[in-house]
TrEMBL record:
UniProt keyword annotations, A-Z: NAD, Oxidoreductase
Presence of the UniProt keyword rRNA-binding in the record: no
Listed name of the protein: Phosphoglycerate dehydrogenase-like enzyme
Domain D-isomer specific 2-hydroxyacid dehydrogenase NAD-binding, first and last residues per copy: 106-282
Sequence similarity: Belongs to the D-isomer specific 2-hydroxyacid dehydrogenase family.
CDD domains: 2-Hacid_dh_1 (cd05300)
GO molecular function: NAD binding; oxidoreductase activity, acting on the CH-OH group of donors, NAD or NADP as acceptor
Domain D-isomer specific 2-hydroxyacid dehydrogenase catalytic span(s) in chain numbering: 31-314
Length: 334
C-alpha cells in the first residue's frame, strides 16, 4: 500500500513508523502535490486545512487511486464543504488532541474566573490592585455544561471533576456518558444552558451545528455564566456574543476559535474586558506530545494495510438542518 504523507508536524517520525509496517511504502508530500498524489497513493495523510476544491476534484476523478484519508485534525468541516467521493473513507485524529485541548479549556476558564487578564494589565502597569479580589470566583461547586461529549468533552469533564465541579453534557440522543453526571439530548439544549455556570462548546462544525449558540441561546444563560469555545468559531454567533457581553447578559467568554478566524485587527471582541482570545492553541503542544499523532497515523495505516477497518472513521455528509434539536444533531459522541 502506498501512502503520501503531508504533515507540518512529526513528519520524520511518521515516515519512520510507517516504514516499519509491512506492506507500506510512504513518502513525504508537499501541499502543492496533493492533487497529483491521488493518482499514485492508496491513502493520504493530511490536515483538514489542506483540503480544498482542487483536491476534492482530483479524488473524484476516474483515475484517482486514493481510497482512504487519514486526517491530522479532529475537525473535518472542509471535507463536508467541498465533498468527497463515496469510495473514499476518512479517519480523523480521534482522541490525539483531546488532552491538550482540555487543558486549554481550563487555561481559558481559570483566566476568566481568576481575572488573569486584569492582573496581567495591572502587572504591566506596575500596579498592586487588590480590589480585583472582589471579582474572582472559584470553580468548586460550579456546574459545567459541555456541548459535544466526544473525546474532548470527556477529557474536559474529567478535569472539571478534579476542580470539584458537577458536569452536564449535551449529545444528540441523551445517551449516558460515564464522565458526566447528567446528559441532555440536543432538544433540551436551552434547558441545559440555563442551569450552567460554565459552558464549553466542543462539538464539530457541521451544517447542523453552525450558529448553534446564538442570540436565543445566550439569552437563556445565567448572567454570570462563562462561555468557552474550543471547537470552531462558527458554532457561536460572534455578533450575538458581543451583544450579550455588552449588555451584561453573560459573564465572560474564552475563545480559542473565532468567526472570522483569524479575528481581524479592530474587531470589537478584542477590546471586551471580559473576553480572553487565544490564536487556536488547543492543539499546540511540545514535540514530545506530537509522537501521539505519529503513532495514531501509523497504527491506523497498519490496520488499513491489513484490510481492517481504520479507527475513528467519520461520516462526511451534505445537507443543512434547522431548529434547536437539529442544530445539535451531529454532536460528537452522540
Amino acid at each position: 500500500m502506498r501512502i503520501a504523507v503531508c504533515s507540518p508536524v512529526a513528519l520524520d517520525e511518521m515516515l519512520t513508523l510507517l516504514a516499519g509496517v509491512r506492506g507500506i511504502e510512504a513518502w513525504p508530500c508537499a501541499v502543492a502535490d496533493l492533487a497529483a498524489a491521488t493518482r499514485e497513493a492508496d491513502a493520504i495523510v493530511l490536515g483538514s486545512f489542506h483540503y480544498g476544491p482542487q483536491l476534492a476534484a482530483a479524488l473524484a476523478a476516474p483515475e484517482a487511486r486514493t481510497r482512504w484519508l487519514q486526517l491530522l485534525t479532529a475537525g473535518y468541516e472542509t471535507l463536508d464543504q467541498h465533498g468527497l467521493p463515496g469510495r473514499c473513507k476518512v479517519s480523523n485524529a480521534g482522541d490525539v488532541w483531546s488532552p491538550s485541548v482540555a487543558e486549554h479549556v481550563f487555561t481559558l476558564i481559570l483566566g476568566l474566573a481568576r481575572r488573569a487578564r486584569q492582573c496581567a494589565a495591572d502587572q504591566q502597569a506596575g500596579r498592586w490592585k487588590a480590589t480585583v479580589r472582589q471579582q474572582v470566583r472559584s470553580l468548586a461547586g460550579a456546574r459545567m455544561l459541555i456541548v459535544g461529549m466526544g473525546s474532548i468533552g470527556r477529557e474536559t469533564a474529567m478535569r472539571a471533576r478534579a476542580f470539584g465541579m458537577s458536569v452536564a453534557g449535551v449529545n444528540r440522543t441523551g445517551r449516558p456518558v460515564a464522565e458526566a453526571d447528567v446528559i441532555y439530548p440536543a432538544g433540551r439544549l436551552g434547558e441545559a444552558l440555563a442551569e450552567a455556570d460554565v459552558i464549553v462548546v466542543a462539538a464539530p462544525s457541521t451544517p447542523g451545528t453552525r450558529g448553534m449558540i446564538g442570540r436565543e441561546q445566550l439569552a437563556l444563560c445565567k448572567p454570570e455564566a462563562l462561555l468557552i469555545n474550543v471547537a470552531r468559531g462558527d458554532l457561536v454567533d460572534s455578533g450575538a456574543l458581543l451583544e450579550a457581553l455588552r449588555a451584561g447578559r453573560i459573564g465572560g467568554a474564552g475563545l480559542d476559535v473565532t468567526d472570522p478566524e483569524p479575528l481581524p485587527h479592530g474587531h470589537p471582541l478584542w477590546d471586551e474586558p471580559d473576553v480572553i482570545i487565544t490564536p487556536h492553541l488547543g492543539g499546540a503542544a511540545s514535540p514530545r506530545y506530537m509522537s501521539r499523532l505519529a503513532r495514531h497515523v501509523a497504527d491506523n495505516a497498519a490496520r488499513f494495510a491489513a484490510g481492517e477497518t481504520p479507527r475513528h472513521l467519520v461520516q462526511i455528509q451534505a445537507g443543512a438542518f434547522s431548529g434547536e434539536a437539529e442544530a445539535a444533531s451531529r454532536l460528537a459522541g452522540a
